[in-house]
Amino acid sequence: MTIGADESSDNYVIRVSSQPLVSPQAWNQLLAAQSHPTPFMRLEYLQALQLSLSACPHTGWDPRWVTVTQGPEATEVTEGNGHNEHNEPGALNATEAPLLAAAVIYIKPHSYGEYVFDWAWANAYEQHRLNYYPKGTLAVPFTPVPGSRLLAVNEAARTTLVQALLAVCRQEGLSSLHALFASDDDQAALASQGFMPRHTVQFHWHNRDAQGQPFESFEGFLASLAQDKRKKIRQERRKVHETGVVFRHSQGRDISPQDWAFFYSCYERTYREHGNPPYLTPDFFERMANTMPQNWLLFIAELEGQPIASSLIALSDDGSVAYGRYWGALARVDCLHFEACYYQPIAWCIANGVRRFEGGAQGEHKMARALMPVRTSSAHWIEHPQFAQAIGRFLEREAAGVDNYMDDLSQRSPLRQPTQG
Prior knowledge:
- This protein has 11 helices and 14 strands.
- Strands 1, 2, 3, 4, 5, 6, 7, 8, 9, 10, 11, 12, 13 and 14 form a 14-stranded mixed β-sheet that branches.
- By secondary structure, the chain is an alpha+beta fold.
- The chain has 2 domains: about 190 residues, Aminopeptidase (3-Layer(aba) Sandwich); about 170 residues, Gcn5-related N-acetyltransferase (GNAT) (Aminopeptidase, 3-Layer(aba) Sandwich), CATH 3.40.630.
- It is globular, with a radius of gyration of 23 Å.
- Strand 1 and strand 2 form a beta hairpin.
- The N terminus is likely disordered.
- Helix 2 packs antiparallel against helix 9 and helix 8 runs antiparallel to helix 9.
């Protein structure tokens, strides 16, 4: 596939391929320069999803890697098969020209693994005998973490990238393009090209007391909460402690292959207990252990010397943000989920000076553990004019509902008020 662009007397070379066209170093350097980088947009992470067959055409995630470089003239580049000498996908026709912008969109025949729900839109299309699928999704598969999706050196390059992505959608005959959990910079560029905003709510914990200072201890954190919330957390932790469960944690290359294997058994069991096969394959986590070990922290719960549960936490490249990602248990212990997924990670964050812990998508119950509501945003482009108008009206009503929901949550803050003990 080929796209050429020439805008404001600047010539861009835009390449589109089923495999990334740049090196991990070039991609990650551009990512690090964004306003909201996350480890999930590192090239190693995205490639691991594809190469492990977790997010690939077979599972309904058919990638289109788009890059913008500057050259003497807009050059046509033909899409290749993207295989290297080892017959494994890799950088294709990598260019030494400066990388100005990059993104990956996925062509999808379904809406699974996105966490921003558009099933009703798909049903409306079907009722009108129109095809909603295939559609385009600008997101990290199975990863509802806010962050930069459009990697660019400046606003002009970001706008050019958005225009290139829309050209890909039109050439592929897609009904729509959905940028999920996008950064503020992304939202501005997308809005300038006619994308409609959509908002959801997540719950994040922040490592700061009433004076804006980091907590010195877990007890100091508890002191910031209302009395009933402090009491509840202490009760939940006591229940786990009284069973004899103890925790250990490992980070980076200290996570052993045996621990990774145990984690996967927990992760897989949790999905199957809910009637679904796991999204991610064992090969994906093996690749994470090999290519991004510094970004992972693993908690393992043990009872009488035997592992019974685990939770996997991701860490930002600069160590300032932790992300709750996956958990699972092979034994039933009351309140073990709260201890493994919230209290152990929060205590670790306090001890290590991490400023924010993101608890993942949805989950109003997280507020009782002092994960506070945060508005997250997506942006949506709909090709069909009438459906674009109808969805736009729906999004306006939905936005008002989100505003009311945020107002309601603000009235139920778990934080101690000045008059409270």
